[in-house]
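Your task:
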Amino acid sequence: MHALFPLLAAAALTLGLPAAAQEATIRKSLGERLPQLKSIDEVQPTAMPGLYEVRVGTDLFYTDAKGNYLIQGELFDTRAKRNLTEDRINKLTAVDFSALPLNDAFTIVRGDGKRKLAVFEDPNCGYCKRFERDLQNVDNITIYLFLYPILSPDSAEKSRNIWCASDRVAAWQDYMVRDKAPAAATCDTGALQRNLAFGRKHKITGTPTLIFADGARVPGAIGAKDVEKRLAEAAQ
């Protein structure tokens, strides 16, 4: 039984409806009135009485018990000072680190390499370049770099040249940190296509995207101090 089923049942009983009927009411109302919500993956109560979460993939909406109103936004717990929507999305988008296809990445090791981080990046990403330059300040880490060419027409060409370089790490850091373009190179680039497929499956829509050893995912560039903080949390 779903861990939240008792909450849904209690909320439904308050309204005089069995839990299944309560969920069916919400699904029916929203599905009929909003065609884009015909394929609802999950309905469950939130911590706020009378408010229900409606999940479509990793998109979250909120509604009342009858599906008469729909809210798209973030739900905050002011007492706990937590963004409940963000917490939920973080849980939904977490990636099992052990399931990452590490053979399709190249590895950068600094210091003892004990701490682990996976990063999806496009060589044409300005935020990635800023992130890479800041990441030079993080030591004792192993970085699994997944080339993820999604931003510009020549992203695939630059990614190919880096992936096919005799020294991928040097070619990558030369370009991202020192603005030295990689030399033209060719080889089997199946890994790049597999990275794109993996990203589509896990809804990686921007670069850089960071995945820590505990499965936590961070979309966007963060500074070295935040990387250190996340690495510490992942090690707990």
In short: Confidence is low (pLDDT under 50) at residues 1-15. The chain is about 40% helix and 20% strand. The CA atoms of residues 38 and 63 lie 15 Å apart.
